[in-house]
Each structure stands twice: as C-alpha cells, then as structure tokens.
Amino acid sequence: MARVPYFDLSQASDNYLQLIGSRPPLNLYRMLPHAGKLAEGFLALGGAILRENRLDSRLREIAILRVGLLCGSSYEVHQHRRVARNVGLADDKVAALEIGADTGALDDTERMVLDYVDQVVKHVKAPDAMFDALCKQLSPALVAELTLVIGFYMMVSRFLENFEVDIEAPAATQNAG
After folding, report:
1. Contacting residues for 163 by C-beta, under 8 A, at least 6 apart
2. pLDDT tens across 10-36, in order?
3. In 10 A of CB 121, how many CB atoms?
4. Which of 130, 173, 144, 145 is nearest to 27 (CA)?
C-alpha cells in the first residue's frame, strides 16, 4: 500500500491532465502530481524516452529492466516486462536480465548494454575501455541517450519505491502501451 494517499486528480493542473490523457491509468500517474510542476517535466522526459528514442527500443527496455532489477523496483520491472514484450524483446532475453542469470540469450550488443547499465548504476562512471567500445558499437549519440535512460529510470525506481506505488490490477494495464 502506498505510503501517502494518491493525489486527487480532480485537483491536478489542466496541463498535467492533458499530459496523462492518452496514457494508461497507472498509479504512478496518480502519485506524481504531489511533485507539482516537476511532474510535468518528468512526464515530458519519460515520454521522449519512450516515444522519441533513436536507441533501439529493445536495447532501451534491456536498460530499463536492468535498472529496475538493480534498484529493486518491482513496479518498474512489472510495467516494463510488458513494454519489453510489446517492442519484441523475447522472453529468454528478459529472463537473462535477472541478477545472476545466464546471459547466453543476449547478443554481444545487448550484453554490452547490460554491462554498461551495471557500471553506471553501481559505480556512476563506466571504465574508459567499456565506454569507448560502447561508443564504437552504438555511436556517441546513442550512448548519450542510453545514459539518460539509465539515469531517468534510476530516478523513477527511487520515486516508486519510496512512495511504495502499488502495482495496478491487471485490467488497468492490459491495453497500456
């Protein structure tokens, strides 16, 4: 159960309500308005990451799921397992993202992303050799996007876990996407 009551959306700003208008009815969106105007910026960045990305969506979801797993964010992992399936990430690849799992189902680029996520989450900065290799594989622009994805979902995970946002009943998210 959430640590504080969910925000009364009838009290949310018109701008916030417009931003969540076409999104699924997630509890995250019911908790965010406690942050005032920051919630609108949060939604704008999150929307850009999910809908305006240049990074392959499967690599993005590998990063998001691994961040959620490393941060112990059950809500984030629950939501993004669904998103990962929707963008075509196979179940064996999703399973390979678990901490300590066999990563044999992942290709070389996917393993590089996984290793990079681990370094950024656990140590803030990746070693030079890892960073340089990743920039050769994905391009500096894509590595910049990947790094922002990691940082954003670290923030999301911390928000979700500290407010103990509840996972929705299956009917609330079955048509989400």
Report:
1. 2, 3, 4, 31
2. 999 999 999 998 888 899 999 999 999
3. 19
4. 173
Task: State the alpha helices, DSSP H only, in the chain.
Answer: 14-20, 27-31, 37-51, 57-71, 74-86, 91-95, 108-123, 128-138, 140-163, 170-173
Query: Phi, psi (5° rounding) for residue 39?
Result: -60, -35
Residues of the chain with pLDDT below 50 are 173-177
Q: Which two tokens stand for residue 75?
A: 């809500």
Contacts of residue 105, Cβ cutoff 8 Å, sequence gap at least 6: 90, 92, 93, 95, 96
- Do residues 157 and 68 lie in contact, with contact meaning Cβ atoms separated by under 8 Å? yes
Residue 158 DSSP SS3? helix
Separation between Cα atoms, residue 82 and residue 72, nearest integer Å? 17
Per-residue tokens: 114: 């996984």
Residue 94 CB partners (closer than 8 Å, separation 6+): 65, 81, 84, 85
